[in-house]
Specification:
InterPro entries: GerMN. The protein is of the alpha+beta class. It is built from 4 helices and 8 strands; from the N terminus they run αββααββαββββ. α4 links the parallel β4 and β5. It starts with a helix and ends in a 16-residue tail after the last strand.
Length: 190
């Protein structure tokens, strides 16, 4: 009896010790980032962004799906700089690998500000209303990119300071904050 009790106590103490020193869990799935130290090859930095010692994820389109790619940046970068990195589109290496952008040749977003865990993206005057066939992918690219930032949980879109309804992954419109879960069916990881 004493041996069973000792074994049970050992199991409980071991379990508590192991759970107390692990990696904290996210509420949502998050893909692991590959770094230069892991031996993964990283795409070159975009024009205008100095190569750096950190990586940030942007979401491009490949085969009709949102696909995260890693960019090297000089830290720290703001949410607005991260958005501008996305708006530059795929570099030559990414284009040769089949990546495109639903944001190409548009001036959809004019800037981004972060307040706590929410990034607000200001849409330019050129965006009138949802309806383009690639709107879902365009907004998905922005949400996927900005929510990859550790401190960001959601993205909302405004125009002239007012919340603007934009399409989720299922094409339904919402004026509320969006998360990567809203585009999960369109997201692939490699």
């Amino acid at each position: 009896m004493r041996r069973r009790l000792s074994a049970a106590i050992l199991v409980v103490v071991t379990a508590l010790t192991l759970t107390g020193c692990g990696v904290p869990l996210d509420d949502e799935p998050r893909s692991a980032r590959r770094t230069a130290d892991s031996g993964a090859s990283l795409p070159s930095a975009s024009p205008g962004v100095q190569p750096g010692s950190a990586t940030e994820r942007i979401c491009l389109v490949r085969d009709g799906a949102l696909t995260p790619v890693i960019r090297r940046v000089r830290p720290p970068i703001s949410a607005d700089t991260h958005l501008r990195l996305l708006l530059q589109g795929p570099d030559a290496v990414e284009q040769n690998s089949g990546y495109t952008s639903a944001l190409a040749a548009t001036r959809l977003a004019t800037g981004a500000t972060q307040d706590g865990g929410i990034v607000t993206v200001d849409l330019g005057d050129q965006y009138r209303e949802a309806g383009r066939t690639d709107d879902v992918l365009a907004f998905g690219q922005i949400v996927c990119t900005l929510t990859s930032r550790l401190a960001v949980g959601a993205v909302r879109f405004v125009q002239d300071g007012k919340p603007l309804p934009v399409p989720r992954g299922d094409a339904s419109l919402t004026a509320g904050p969006l998360t990567i879960a809203d585009y999960a069916d369109l997201l692939v990881t490699e």
